[in-house]
Design a protein that fits this description.
Elements (H helix, E strand, L loop, with lengths): L6 E7 L7 H12 L5 E5 L18 H12 L2 E5 L9 H10 L12 E8 L5 H14 L2 E2 L5 E4 L15 H22 L5 H4 L1
Parallel strand pairs: 1-2, 1-3, 3-4, 4-5, 4-6
Length: about 200
């Protein structure tokens, strides 16, 4: 029996807070991803400097790793709080760095999903602004299901910061399955390990 290669999905969180609920959502995805045939990892943006074209060729090891992760990913999940009606600087900066990969090999034609957690509109305006950015990056952003969480209503455990709401967990899995389906349709037939040998 052929063993299908797990799809590689990269999670990028726009919040650098230690107790970020957006990061907590990505960590839950990391728990359930293997059961859904997905190899999921989360990028570390904590040491990524602001993009500066004057020093673009002097990439730090952290930037080099991020670019390698972006290029090798089959799809993406972006998690971002809403900062002043928009996406966070950390996420925008990561996308700016990734857009500098030659021929846009990091993003072009790949699938992406968005999750957000916050107050008010639960990060909705950030999600819609991120969709605008994705147009230039040539990403195919999953339309449904939209996943937006309230950070202060018990969706996340106050003590551990873990995503504990069963409804929220179900929405995460639903989106993950839909993202995988979209990414597979964009890539074409799935290759197996046997076929590579």
């Amino acid at each position: 029996m052929k063993l299908t290669i797990p799809m590689k999905v990269l999670g990028i969180c726009g919040s650098l807070r230690q107790k970020s609920t957006n990061m907590a959502a990505l960590k839950y995805i990391a728990q359930v991803a293997p059961d859904n045939g997905i190899d999921f990892e989360i990028a570390d943006l904590s040491q990524i400097p602001f993009f500066n074209a004057d020093t673009e060729n002097e990439k730090s090891p952290e930037v080099v790793k991020l670019l390698e992760q972006i290029k090798s990913a089959d799809a993406f999940i972006f998690a971002s709080p809403e900062y002043n009606y928009s996406i966070s600087p950390a996420l925008k900066n990561a996308l700016d760095w990734g857009s500098r990969i030659p021929q846009n090999q990091g993003f072009k034609g790949k699938a992406a999903a968005i999750v957000s957690s916050g107050g008010g509109l639960r990060g909705g305006r950030a999600q819609y602004h991120l969709r605008q950015v994705a147009v230039f990056l040539d990403l195919y952003v999953l339309n449904k299901p939209e996943v937006m969480f309230t950070a202060f209503d018990g969706t996340f455990d106050k003590a551990t910061n873990e995503l504990t709401s069963s409804h929220a967990q179900e929405k995460i899995v639903e989106q993950l399955v839909a993202l995988k389906d979209l990414a597979e349709r964009l890539k074409g037939p799935v290759t197996s390990k046997d076929e590579l040998e």
